[in-house]
C-alpha cells in the first residue's frame, strides 16, 4: 500500500521552526520591508534547511547554520536594495548610510537588536555565538556609528 498523506517533518526540525519562525519573519520583514516577500523568503530558507537537515544536525551548530541559511536567503538578493532603501525604513538618511557601512556581523546584531527587538541571548543563539560576542559586535557597531555621526549619537558611559 502506498502512503498518500503528508509525511511529518522531523520533530527537531519542527521544534526549530516553532522556536524561530516569529523572529525569522521579523528579521525578513525588517530587511525586505514587504510582508509577502518576507514570508516567501522565510519559507525558502526553511525548505533549504529541511533539504540539508541531516548535514546541519551533524555539523554541531544547527543554530548558526540555520541562521546563515536564513540570512543568505533573505538578504542575498535584497541587501543592496535594502541598504539603498534603508532610509525609508529608518526615516533618517545619516543613520541609514552609517548602518549600511557596518560589517555583516555588526549589521546583523544592530538589525536584530534594534529593528527586530531581539534580546541578546536570542541574538547569540541565532548567530551561534556567545552573548558576550553579541555585545562585542554591538559595541563595535556603536563605535563605528559614533565615528560616522559623532554629533548624532551620544556615548553611554
UniProtKB/TrEMBL annotation:
<dbReference type="GO" id="GO:0016987">
    <property type="term" value="F:sigma factor activity"/>
</dbReference>
<protein>
    <submittedName>
        <fullName>RNA polymerase</fullName>
    </submittedName>
</protein>
<dbReference type="GO" id="GO:0003677">
    <property type="term" value="F:DNA binding"/>
</dbReference>
<feature type="domain" description="RNA polymerase sigma factor 70 region 4 type 2">
    <location>
        <begin position="94"/>
        <end position="145"/>
    </location>
</feature>
<dbReference type="InterPro" id="IPR013324">
    <property type="entry name" value="RNA_pol_sigma_r3/r4-like"/>
</dbReference>
<keyword id="KW-0804">Transcription</keyword>
<dbReference type="GO" id="GO:0006352">
    <property type="term" value="P:DNA-templated transcription initiation"/>
</dbReference>
<dbReference type="InterPro" id="IPR036388">
    <property type="entry name" value="WH-like_DNA-bd_sf"/>
</dbReference>
<comment type="similarity">
    <text>Belongs to the sigma-70 factor family. ECF subfamily.</text>
</comment>
<dbReference type="InterPro" id="IPR013325">
    <property type="entry name" value="RNA_pol_sigma_r2"/>
</dbReference>
<dbReference type="InterPro" id="IPR013249">
    <property type="entry name" value="RNA_pol_sigma70_r4_t2"/>
</dbReference>
<dbReference type="Pfam" id="PF08281">
    <property type="entry name" value="Sigma70_r4_2"/>
</dbReference>
<keyword id="KW-0238">DNA-binding</keyword>
<keyword id="KW-0805">Transcription regulation</keyword>
<dbReference type="InterPro" id="IPR039425">
    <property type="entry name" value="RNA_pol_sigma-70-like"/>
</dbReference>
<keyword id="KW-0731">Sigma factor</keyword>
Amino acid at each position: 500500500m502506498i502512503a498518500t498523506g503528508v509525511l511529518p517533518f522531523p520533530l527537531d526540525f519542527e521544534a526549530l521552526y516553532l522556536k524561530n519562525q516569529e523572529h525569522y519573519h521579523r528579521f525578513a520583514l525588517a530587511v525586505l520591508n514587504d510582508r509577502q516577500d518576507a514570508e516567501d523568503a522565510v519559507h525558502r530558507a526553511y525548505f533549504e534547511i529541511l533539504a540539508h537537515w541531516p548535514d546541519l544536525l551533524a555539523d554541531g551548530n544547527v543554530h548558526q547554520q540555520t541562521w546563515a541559511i536564513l540570512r543568505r536567503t533573505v538578504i542575498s538578493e535584497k541587501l543592496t536594495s535594502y541598504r539603498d532603501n534603508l532610509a525609508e525604513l529608518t526615516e533618517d538618511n545619516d543613520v541609514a548610510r552609517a548602518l549600511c557601512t557596518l560589517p555583516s556581523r555588526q549589521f546583523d546584531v544592530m538589525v536584530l537588536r534594534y529593528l527586530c527587538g531581539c534580546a541578546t541571548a536570542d541574538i547569540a543563539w541565532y548567530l551561534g555565538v556567545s552573548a558576550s560576542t553579541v555585545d562585542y559586535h554591538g559595541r563595535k557597531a556603536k563605535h563605528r556609528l559614533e565615528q560616522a555621526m559623532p554629533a548624532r549619537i551620544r556615548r553611554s558611559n
